């Protein structure tokens, strides 16, 4: 009965999803603010989520995808730029998941920011961010993608620097913008190359035209863009610094949606990378280094939000590894499952932080599981899902990536790094659980501990359901584009599990050692290296500022005046003359030895010339 | 009273307090911390009756160096302290009181009692300003003030100098 109306339903629901998101923004600009504007925004996103479920289910059932051109924006022939939205596998599933996660986070933000004077503005910013993310994800041409890309970057800046009275928050926002800008250079390089060589920015056309071409340059550009946006090693310091923003911002932007935009770009434009081994290897190595380094940094952090931020960075490295293995679908699945449990971990952290009166240091938390049972349970579920516990959400994606890693032809070094990083994941997850919810209480006695608020409980419960069943659902309903390696030795199949268990056991031992406190502090070198983030931010921030300034100073003061007007002109010639004159005067000092040696040398040269010529 | 130079006692006590705080950052569990804190106290108490200032200064220097080598890279800082996570967080919401003068008369008419009282307080401020400045000029030494603390009101019927800035400071947590 509905079959012949499915396409109409599909497109209508998708259009309605977008309109429901844009409506509050337009309303805020046109009329006076409503009584309970945050509730209205949350309800809009909730309705948008339910509306987006219909096309997702239609897609999962009938594999219906669509590409809609809404409006021809520019036509500088032959380049045509339209407002066109592509609803394929990646964008539709990601849309539903992003809307689900955003709904939960907005509901949580109603509790977290309820004492904030400018809560309406906060919700408006979050909604603008969500719209930019939707534009990015559904973009069918590079220009629209770039609009979404820049949009999420700007909203990230505004939201990280929400409390702009704080110096650290402003520094963090600047870091985010500058590191993202360096990545944008790559994106612009790719866009320029595509425009010049393909005369088009339309993604479908580009895939057809670049089928057998050497796409190293745009692929490298896209890799740089992903490096900047997804905090890969080299452009990663902005992500832990971005924890200066309020917890809902960290949960939405810097764990589930914005930071995966870089990986999403690589997934969407995967045909450029498919046949290019150089770029794939680069992505693999970059991902391996990122996941190892950031997991190592997370081992000694003491701020709960920073540990979760490094955990995000490590998982992003794992997604990059999946892309380097030529398995974009596994990376996409990891994006989807990761969104659930990471957002939930951030919401749990936010609940704990507010309950302990803005205390973020795990050294002053403890025994939370007795006083905040729901929050600590969900934190545990999130950590287990993160570690890849069998049959929770993270297992399906993470285990698949590690299996693909084990059964591919690649360098053993990348493999080792990723496996060690997987065990580190278990270690720092246990670190959070041990210091926050287990062991003795170290918090202040009169803390306003209260999690008995539906605005906290409902979002966390929803995301907990997602963390448990989302992996299973996605795994069952989405067929992989590339056939996975099905047969492998038992040891390879169980590698991820063994490595995580090993990490867990080591972490338990370490926790026991910490409890005994045999010596005051651990090995300084390793601990300090990990705690200070490898000294990377400290060296790079100062070096990158100092080098151009020194270069500029030398250029401005010395190069023009000294080099060109002095050295190239009078002084240079004078120096040359002086040297020559000195040498000749040396020779004519009246020393017989000098005369004799010159005579012998000249005789030798003349004899050699006579003999050989 | 606070002065320009620190006494030896102040320096030792500052070293003791910051070593205790860094020890707390290293030894997370309270019972283990108490054990090591007692050891640290014993280290300080060993030389507490030393009368020779030269030796005491050398010991202090050695102590500072030991502190520097064994400090925690991320010491625990209270959230509202400088360097903490919620320090200066609400600065952006703190509005200075002179903005109240820029309100529109219709807005001011919504709170007539408050603004009437505010006019009286402003008159009082204008009257006592001259006397506050005179008191500060008399009490400040010739080469500049030695401390940041302000003196109290000395004469009968006077208000403490710069009282208006203190009284009209914004709330700690703006509503």
Give the tally of β-strands of chain A.
2
N-to-C SSE series of chain B?
HHHHHH
Mean pLDDT of chain B: 92
Distance from first to last alpha carbon of chain A: 103 Å
Rg of Cα set of chain A: 30 Å
Helix content of chain B: 40-55%
The SS-based structural class of chain B is mainly alpha
Report Rg of chain B. 25 Å
- State the total count of DSSP E strands of chain B: 0
Which outline of chain B best applies?
elongated
Instruction: Report the principal-axis shape of chain A.
Output: globular
Uncertain spans of chain A: none
Question: Based on the structure, what is the oligomeric state of the protein chains?
Answer: heterodimer
Strand order of the largest sheet of chain A: 1-2
State the largest interface. A-B, 33 and 31 residues
Number of domain units of chain A: 3
Which sheet architecture does the biggest sheet of chain A show?
A: 2 strands, antiparallel
**Total number of helices of chain B:** 6
> What is the percent of helical residues of chain A?
over 70%
Describe the structure.
The complex is a heterodimer of chains A (613) and B (175). Chain A is mainly alpha-helical. Chain A has three domains: 1-480 and 488-516, no CATH class; 522-568; 578-612. Chain A is 74% helix and 3% strand. Chain A has 26 helices and two strands. Chain A has helices at 6-30, 37-62, 89-112, 119-137, 142-160, 167-198, 203-209, 216-229, 238-241, 247-257, 260-268, 270-274, 277-298, 304-324, 328-355, 368-371, 373-387, 393-406, 412-436, 454-477, 490-493, 495-516, 524-531, 536-567, 570-587, 592-612; strands at 66-76, 79-87. In chain A, strands 1-2 form a two-stranded antiparallel sheet. In chain A, strand 1 (66-76) and strand 2 form a beta hairpin. In chain A, helix 1 packs antiparallel against helix 4 and helix 3 packs antiparallel against helix 10. The longest helix of chain A has 32 residues, at 167-198. Chain A is globular and about 110 Å long. The model of chain A has no long low-confidence stretch (mean pLDDT 93). Chain B is mainly α. Helices cover 52% and strands 0% of the residues of chain B. Chain B contains six helices and no strands. The longest helix of chain B is centred in the C-terminal third of the chain and has 28 residues, at 112-139. The radius of gyration of chain B is 25 Å and the shape is elongated. The two termini of chain B are 36 Å apart. The mean pLDDT of chain B is 92. The chains are: A mainly alpha (613), B mainly alpha (175). Chain A binds chain B through residues 115, 117-118, 163-167, 301-303, 357-361, 363-364, 435, 439-440, 442, 514-517, 520-521, 524, 527-528, 531-532, and chain B through 23-30, 32, 35-36, 70, 72-74, 76, 79-80, 85-94, 173-175. Chain B: This is NADH dehydrogenase [ubiquinone] 1 beta subcomplex subunit 9. Chain B: It holds the Pfam family Complex1_LYR.
């Amino acid at each position: 009965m509905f079959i012949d109306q499915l396409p109409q339903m599909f497109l209508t629901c998708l259009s309605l999803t977008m309109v429901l998101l844009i409506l509050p923004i337009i309303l805020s600009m046109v009329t006076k603010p409503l009584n309970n504007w945050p509730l209205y925004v949350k309800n809009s996103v909730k309705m948008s989520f339910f509306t987006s479920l219909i096309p997702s289910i239609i897609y999962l059932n009938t594999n219906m995808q669509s590409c809609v051109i809404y409006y021809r924006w520019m036509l500088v022939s032959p380049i045509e730029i339209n407002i066109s939205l592509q609803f394929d596998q990646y964008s539709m599933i990601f849309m539903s998941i992003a809307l689900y996660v955003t709904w939960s986070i907005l509901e949580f933000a109603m509790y977290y920011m309820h004492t904030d004077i400018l809560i309406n503005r906060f919700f408006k910013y979050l909604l603008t961010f969500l719209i930019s993310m939707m534009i990015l994800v559904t973009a069918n041409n590079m220009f629209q993608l770039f609009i979404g890309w820049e949009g999420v970057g700007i909203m990230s800046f505004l939201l990280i620097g929400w409390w702009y009275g704080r110096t650290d928050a402003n520094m963090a926002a600047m870091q985010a913008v500058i590191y993202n800008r360096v990545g944008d250079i790559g994106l612009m390089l790719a866009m320029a190359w595509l425009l010049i060589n393909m005369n088009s920015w339309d993604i479908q056309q580009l895939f057809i035209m670049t089928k057998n071409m050497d796409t190293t340059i745009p692929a490298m550009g896209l890799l740089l863009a992903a490096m900047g946006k997804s905090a890969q090693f080299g452009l990663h310091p902005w992500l832990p610094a971005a924890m200066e923003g309020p917890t809902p911002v960290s949960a939405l932007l810097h764990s589930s949606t914005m930071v995966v935009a870089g990986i999403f770009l690589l997934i969407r434009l995967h045909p450029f990378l498919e046949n290019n081994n150089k770029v794939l290897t680069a992505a693999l190595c970059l991902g391996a280094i990122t996941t190892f380094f950031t997991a190592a940094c997370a081992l000694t952090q003491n701020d709960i939000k920073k540990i979760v931020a490094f955990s995000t960075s490590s998982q992003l490295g794992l997604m990059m590894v999946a892309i380097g293995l030529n398995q974009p679908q596994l990376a996409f699945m990891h994006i989807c499952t990761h969104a659930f449990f990471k957002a939930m971990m951030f919401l749990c952290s936010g609940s704990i932080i507010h309950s302990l009166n803005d205390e973020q240091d795990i050294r002053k938390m403890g025994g939370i599981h007795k006083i905040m049972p729901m929050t600590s349970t969900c934190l545990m579920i999130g950590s287990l899902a993160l570690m890849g516990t069998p049959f929770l959400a993270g297992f399906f994606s993470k285990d698949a990536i590690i299996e693909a890693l084990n059964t591919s032809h690649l360098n053993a070094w990348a493999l080792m790094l990723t496996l060690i990083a997987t065990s580190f994941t278990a270690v720092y997850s246990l670190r959070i659980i041990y210091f926050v919810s287990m062991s003795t209480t170290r918090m202040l006695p009169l803390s306003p501990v209260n999690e008995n608020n539906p605005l906290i409980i409902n979002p966390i419960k929803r995301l907990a359901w997602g963390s448990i069943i989302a992996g299973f659902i996605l795994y069952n309903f989405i067929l992989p584009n590339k056939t996975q390696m099905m047969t492998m030795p038992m040891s390879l199949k169980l590698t991820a599990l063994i490595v995580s268990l090993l990490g867990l056991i080591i972490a338990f031992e370490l926790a026991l050692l910490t409890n005994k406190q045999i010596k005051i502090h651990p090995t300084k070198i390793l601990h300090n290296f990990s705690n200070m983030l490898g000294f990377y931010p400290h060296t790079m921030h100062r070096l990158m500022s100092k080098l151009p300034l020194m270069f500029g100073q030398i250029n401005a003061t010395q190069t023009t005046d000294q080099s060109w007007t002095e050295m190239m002109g009078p002084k240079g010639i004078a120096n040359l003359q002086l040297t020559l004159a000195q040498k000749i005067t040396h020779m004519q000092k009246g020393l017989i030895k000098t005369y004799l040696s010159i005579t012998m040398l000249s005789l030798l040269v003349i004899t050699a010339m006579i003999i050989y010529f | 009273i606070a002065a320009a130079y620190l006494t030896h006692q102040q320096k030792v006590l500052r070293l003791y307090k910051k070593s205790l705080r860094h020890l707390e950052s290293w030894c997370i569990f309270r019972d283990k911390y108490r054990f090591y804190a007692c050891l640290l106290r014993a280290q300080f108490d060993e030389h507490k009756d030393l009368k020779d200032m030269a030796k005491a200064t050398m010991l202090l220097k050695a102590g500072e160096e030991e502190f520097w080598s064994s400090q925690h890279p991320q010491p625990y800082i209270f959230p509202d302290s400088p360097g903490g996570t919620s320090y200066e967080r609400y600065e952006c919401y703190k509005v200075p009181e002179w903005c109240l003068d820029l309100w529109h008369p219709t807005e001011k008419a919504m709170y007539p009692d408050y603004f009437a009282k505010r006019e009286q307080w402003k008159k009082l401020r204008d009257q006592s300003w001259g006397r506050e400045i005179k008191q500060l000029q008399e009490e400040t030494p010739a080469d500049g003030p030695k401390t940041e603390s302000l003196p109290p009101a000395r004469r009968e019927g006077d208000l403490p100098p710069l009282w208006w800035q203190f009284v009209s400071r914004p709330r700690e947590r703006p509503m």
